């Protein structure tokens, strides 16, 4: 068989195309394997870093963005500018009350765990929540310590009492109401951390507040889901009721400034 010059040229160009294809394929494969390797590497690095459980806030990973729209939609009112202004002016007091809130959040969840032992879901979710709230408590204590801020007694504001007085007194309605109230407290905390993080003149504290958004928004969703799953009836009406009560507590004049207080009177 003889190969003429034209055939030879065609064969060579076909071979080149195959080679180019191979090179392209190879480089795509290399890219993919590099991406896989580098993401495996970054996973490894991330795993090595202390994540959610560091008491030292320097090592915390702050989420780039947390979608707060479910929180904003759930709440009936946004924090007013005058509360934010007052909070910025009284930051040590807000930090002190925040420490109280973390401790109370863990305490309330612990009470629920003892009172309602029948639900696996409730036990498990609240056990995790208590762990996280106590970690937040330790972290806020650390913040107070590094700022040279001494512990100061602060009376409770009107906020939680203002909702709890509407709690029904018979079961399982009482349990459902406490869980709904828990959802509002968590959602409001989240909304206030976001509001403070935007304007606070202390990047370390602002970063810590942004770090809290992830867990507190999950706590709100967990409480709400528990309330619905443990209720025989649809809870929408109760949620709408507490939405109004909570919004009123946040929007109406309040003589005391607290983390969850109303508009400064
Ligand atoms: Fe917390
Ligand atoms: Fe929480």
Features:
2 strands, 265 residues
Number of strands: 2
Low-confidence stretches: 13-50
Bound small molecules, deduplicated: fe (ii) ion
- The name of the CATH topology of the largest domain is Ferritin
CATH architectural type of the largest domain: Up-down Bundle
**Terminus-to-terminus distance:** 102 Å
Total domain modules: 2
Q: Which sequence of SSEs, written as H and E, runs from N to C? A: HHHHHHHHHEE
Can you characterise this structure?
This protein is mainly alpha-helical and 265 residues long. It folds into two domains: 1-48; 57-264, Ferritin, core subunit, four-helix bundle (Ferritin), CATH 1.20.1260. 71% of the residues lie in helices and 2% in strands. The protein has nine helices and two strands. It has helices at 5-48, 69-74, 81-89, 91-115, 120-146, 159-164, 173-199, 203-229, 236-251; strands spanning 253-254, 263-264. A two-stranded parallel ribbon has the order 1-2. Helix 5 (120-146) runs antiparallel to helix 8. The longest helix is centred in the N-terminal third of the chain and has 44 residues, at 5-48. The radius of gyration is 27 Å and the shape is globular. Residues 13-50 have low confidence and may be disordered. Bound molecules: fe (ii) ion (2 copies). One fe (ii) ion binds next to helix 8.
